């Protein structure tokens, strides 16, 4: 099946990314209870800053997919070239975002020790994020044409490097000083730039990039194409920004709760990342398959591809329920914070409840991720951002703050997220089935 062929390398690549973050947080939980509390909020703010920019650039990959479906190979290279130009514009914007992130941490006002760790980790991750827009442009060039195994290999090599370097930089060894949470960020930066280097080396072997003359042609600034990528890419990035932004607000709210609830919530989210990230790979596959079929002027084939990836997503979630449900206790024990000010029994009981909730919302998140990817592959980016963003801002956030103001338990706050995912996913399902997206055209 075409969907599975394209999806499995992306699933492995995203699983590697999730495993990298999982191991990061496992090491940090062993290092310090303060570090593990700071890791998730700082990581989310750092990703929120780059999410808009990275996903605007990443939409060049959707153009690549549609051009590939139409058989226009040179146009694929030109779309990737415009993605690289847009990546270059992201560098000063990321630098300007640093004081905004620091201000946000001050406004939220976590405990002083946690706040200091958040800022140090955030600064390191922003430096690592400089590689992400360029990596998105190059990944889109290969993945959009169905060459997802190369993307998988690059990501797995970078992630393995990060995992190997984590304990070295966190605890220090020999001439390498102990850096704690900053060391985890340095290992992440090395891994991200290694992925970029591998993809850059591979792209220079491609026919349209192999000689200086050809590179000058495909890398020349082409304003109409670049602006068209931005036109459709900004809603794509806006969707991710709103999604990550509201999720970041959620984690900040949990930071105002007692230590047990805050720690259990952060750790459950770290485990959830193992479920969520591979689903992102399936969503990327949906975008590629739909994009290629739309480029080939086959909207019915695009709809069939979207349905097939949806089934693939649900089969994957069923597997996660079986595996994580069976290993819930041992996984939670791995993350029990060093020197925790709460009993293990209370932590394990709450952690199991939160894991059960996120396994329930994962079924509905398949609709959000896979059908969102399918619709964006067809160019229906504006509906996705307005619908999902509107549900998050107008429904989920008010419900979250109301429950917090009423003094509800952390499980109730998590149930507000379940409601949000159900409503957002249901809307995307209706949009996909109605089929208005089939009339959209990204390319001539």
Explained architecture:
84% of the residues lie in helices and 0% in strands. The protein is mainly α. The protein is globular. The model has no long low-confidence stretch (mean pLDDT 87).
Give short descriptive properties of this protein.
single chain, 444 residues, mainly alpha, 16 helices
> How are helices and strands ordered from N to C?
HHHHHHHHHHHHHHHH
Discrete helix count:
16
Query: Structural class of the helices, strands and pairings?
Result: mainly alpha
Percent range for helical residues?
Answer: over 70%
- The CA-CA distance between the termini, in Å, is 28 Å
Biggest sheet character:
none
Give a nutshell description of this structure.
This protein has helices at 2-31, 33-58, 60-69, 73-108, 112-129, 132-143, 148-171, 181-203, 212-218, 223-254, 259-295, 299-326, 328-334, 344-378, 381-405, 410-434. It is mainly alpha-helical and 444 residues long. α2 (33-58) runs antiparallel to α10, α2 packs parallel to α11 and α14 (344-378) runs parallel beside α16 (410-434).
